[in-house]
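User: Hey, my collaborator sent me this sequence without any context and asked if I could get a structure. I don't really work with proteins. Can you help?
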Amino acid sequence: MAESHRAVVLREPGRARVERVPSPPPGPGEVRVRVYAAGVCGSDREVYDGTRPAGYVAYPLTPGHEWSGTVEAAGPGAGGVPAGRKVVAEGFRCCRVCARCRAGETNLCAGPYDETGFTRAGAFAETVTVPARLLHVLDDDADLRAAALLEPAAVAAAAVLRAGPQPGERVAVVGGGTLGLLAVQLLAGAEPAELLVVEPREERAEVARGFGARAVAPGAAAGLAGAYDVVVETAGAARSAVAAVALLRRGGRAVVAGIPPAGAAGIDPVELAMRQIAVSGVFGASSAAWSYAVRAFGAGLLDPAALITHELPLDAYEKAVGLVGGGDPAVGKVLLRP
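Assistant: No problem. I've predicted the 3D structure and written it out in structure-token form, which is a compact way to encode the shape of the chain:
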């Protein structure tokens, strides 16, 4: 009898169930990983609701792009990662030959968009198969529950690398969700003179304080305009990019990592020019950002486990998706545990 495993199969938006699907041997250069935990995020909610742009999802689909696990089997030419090793993996299936890939910007690959959990079967399943070249091997004693958050941590790392904080600078983060709180932990390692988080939810603000940040509500941030050297925006709200730029001193640097809704307020180009503000965006994470996040995790500088509030079995996929973006301030990171 052919091997099989259990997986969430989303036939179309809003129509999902857990099914047994084939488990073929990994092909050339591939590894099959036994999933330990998989995170559910806002983009997974978009996939379920059918609101993700058409070019960035392919149904039917097994979602799940944030995950950790152990190597189960390797195909021909998959390298020397032995069975049983703890791993995570990059999601973008970059081409490796375009100008952007050759420049190290693998998240900006000029080839067709292709990502695990969106156009390829993801990790809301007992196993996931990925190219071995995308693996990042973890320490033997790594906490795989926490490691499931290394994908958003890599995005936060991309934002921090682009922001380039220097010791002694005043740094702010707009947004205290998963991405923002992971950025706080990484930014703390740069030894800022001050680390601020702008977050309306007191539960998230309290977590930020535990990471060494000063937390304020958005209304209080108005009195801090022009006070910060570096601001990282992670909220993805209608006016959060504008709020981030307002916090900057003249000549300051902002990085926008949140994805805002349609019709979000734009940044005044006159203000950018007159105040000589530098604004950058971040889309996903390059291989370098992944490596940075994995190193910080291994060194104990990054503790994603503190953000996890819910762990559910695979059969509770729809409940997990409902928790994400449902507005409950007590909901932090939600994991599925296949």
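In plain terms: DSSP finds eleven helices and 15 strands in the chain. You can pass these tokens on to your collaborator as they are.
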